[in-house]
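Support request from a user on the community tier.

User writes: "When I paste my structure tokens into the form, the page sometimes reloads and wipes my input. The last time it worked, I copied everything first. Here is what I submitted, just in case something in the input itself triggers the reload:"
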């Protein structure tokens, strides 16, 4: 019997596999496709997941795989541009790493970690009881059965696992299709200095957004290249399968419908299409079956789904490992639903707001966009918006008896002065282990935490302007508990003990 079976080797399943290996579990990954996919999907990845990958010490691999230069931090937000270049300490990090390359780097990482991925193995059936999960699989040599203690559906938007577990996935489907590509144009088309195109027989096609009665056309020069990024948005009530790629003819027909003109194309790259849904699984856990990534949520805006899905994986892995190891009760897995459903709902909130901003075509909608754009010239709303898109503002609703502002937040990468050569919080979290970071002379707190060794790192460091006397940081880099400066031990001890028992287990276990 496997401890954990992961269904799906997309970004979420691969990230979960890597994090489980770091936590000491050897999962089995089942993927229906015989080889890594080459259909273009996301053009990049952004948000808090990049901070987490940096904390794990692997961000450089992902940066090295980027083929395009790192763009200025500007983001479309429902037809409004959020220009984060004005901000000092920009809260939103992004990498122009197409999904195929992202998956390649993730595949290399999980290979090094020794994860078993069975490609060409499709999950057909899932049944569970109190003891475990039974999985029916169709592989190249026929069907077979596997048993596991837990099964995680990272099997995408049309999740079979979600359906078999009977988890409702309700929400809104927007009748809208987006098609995008990078193109070059033939010599007959003139590129003007201002980025516009002169198309023979039609006239000028403007750079930026062109709204017509039939939809929206967007065009921008790709950085440092001859190519142009183009896209169309049309109202259309059709269902498309993400695995069926957009064709050049389909793109050109769409441009023709929106602009009323044929835009000649010489070459095309990265053709892709997406539709927008706002759906979230009611439960992320049903007994021994859990969901993560697109199987758990679909957001009606771009640029946030990978961040959300891979962070689901990071939140789940160490909890699952602790439960499989028998150190904590299965109830810990309910906190995965509580925290990640909460985070998903917050992402849903701002992506639904983007729908309202984006879809209106009348003067009132234009006014809404103009007001929004104006608000985003001020620092505070701009900073708030950057944090919203990045997901860096998410503070999990954790027990917080001393009401510390850092409890539930992503641990900031504090610069530490320590005797053992550890200089940052990021370095402490590379091994994905929980850490009690003591930032003042609090031997009393360290004495309590020692009962939880060896399942906890205890580190002491100094820093110039400490935010707390001590921080208990979970493997997912979220702060589980913090001691206020000079907090009396009588107040700090019960909350510290409760946090250690919740997140690490009963003390004294080997
Ligand atoms: C055109 C397009 C552009 C996008 N742009 C962005 C973007 O810019 N930024 C962003 O963050 N997101 C973007 N997204 C969304 C992003 O691609 C998804 O959020 C991401 O792929 C979700 O990852 P996942 O691992 O959860 O699911 P998936 O990537 O869907 O992976 C699921 C895996 O499960 C496998 N599987 C399914 N059923 C079974 C089964 N029964 N048995 C075994 N295996 C199974 C599938 O073959 C697949 O490999 C875009 C999507 C599209 C389509």
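"...and here is what came back when it finally went through:"
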């Amino acid at each position: 019997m496997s401890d954990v079976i992961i269904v799906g080797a997309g970004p979420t399943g691969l990230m979960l596999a890597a994090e489980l290996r770091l936590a000491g579990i050897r999962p089995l990954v089942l993927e229906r496709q015989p080889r890594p996919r080459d259909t273009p999907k996301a053009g990049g990845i952004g948000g808090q997941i990049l901070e987490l990958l940096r904390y794990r010490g692997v961000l450089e691999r992902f940066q090295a795989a980027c083929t395009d230069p790192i763009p200025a931090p500007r983001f479309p937000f429902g037809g409004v541009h959020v220009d984060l270049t004005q901000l000092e300490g920009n809260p939103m990090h992004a990498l122009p790493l197409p999904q195929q390359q992202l998956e390649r780097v993730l595949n290399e990482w999980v290979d090094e970690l020794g994860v078993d991925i069975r490609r060409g193995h499709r999950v057909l059936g899932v049944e569970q009881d109190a003891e475990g999960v039974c999985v029916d699989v169709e592989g190249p040599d026929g069907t077979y059965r596997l048993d596991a203690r837990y099964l995680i559906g990272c099997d995408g938007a049309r999740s079979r696992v979600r359906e078999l577990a009977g988890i409702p996935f309700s929400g809104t489907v927007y009748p809208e299709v987006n098609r995008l590509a990078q193109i070059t144009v033939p010599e007959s088309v003139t590129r003007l200095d201002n980025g516009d195109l002169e198309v023979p027989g039609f006239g000028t096609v403007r750079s930026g957004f062109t709204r017509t009665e039939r939809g929206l056309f967007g065009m921008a020069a790709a950085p440092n290249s001859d190519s142009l990024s183009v896209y169309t948005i049309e109202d259309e009530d059709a269902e498309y399968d993400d695995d069926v790629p957009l064709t050049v003819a389909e793109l050109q027909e769409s441009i023709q419908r929106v602009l009323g003109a044929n835009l000649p194309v010489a070459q095309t790259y990265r053709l892709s299409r997406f539709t927008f849904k706002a759906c979230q699984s009611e439960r992320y856990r049903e007994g021994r079956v859990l969901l993560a990534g697109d199987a758990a949520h679909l957001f009606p805006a771009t640029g946030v789904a990978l961040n959300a899905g891979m962070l689901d994986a990071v939140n789940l892995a160490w909890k699952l490992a602790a439960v499989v190891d028998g150190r904590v009760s299965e109830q810990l897995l309910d906190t995965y639903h509580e925290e990640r459903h909460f985070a998903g709902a917050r992402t849903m909130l701002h992506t639904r707001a983007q729908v309202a901003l984006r879809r209106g075509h009348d003067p009132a909608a234009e006014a809404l966009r103009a007001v929004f754009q104006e608000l985003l010239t001020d620092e505070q709303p701009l900073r708030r918006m950057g944090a919203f898109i990045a997901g860096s503002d998410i503070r999990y609703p954790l027990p917080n008896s001393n009401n510390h502002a850092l409890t539930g937040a992503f641990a900031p990468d504090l610069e530490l002065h320590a005797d053992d050569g550890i200089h940052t919080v990021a370095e402490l979290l590379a091994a994905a282990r929980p850490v009690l970071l003591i930032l003042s002379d609090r031997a009393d707190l360290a004495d309590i935490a020692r009962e939880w060794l060896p399942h906890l790192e205890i580190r002491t460091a100094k820093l110039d302007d400490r935010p707390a006397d001590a921080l208990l940081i979970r493997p997912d880099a979220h702060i589980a508990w913090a001691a206020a400066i000079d907090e009396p031990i009588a107040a700090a001890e019960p909350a510290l003990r409760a946090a250690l028992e919740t997140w690490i287990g009963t003390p004294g276990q080997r």
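Agent notes: The reload is a front-end session timeout and is unrelated to the input. The first strand starts at residue 2 and ends at 7. The two ends are 23 Å apart (CA to CA). Escalated to web team.
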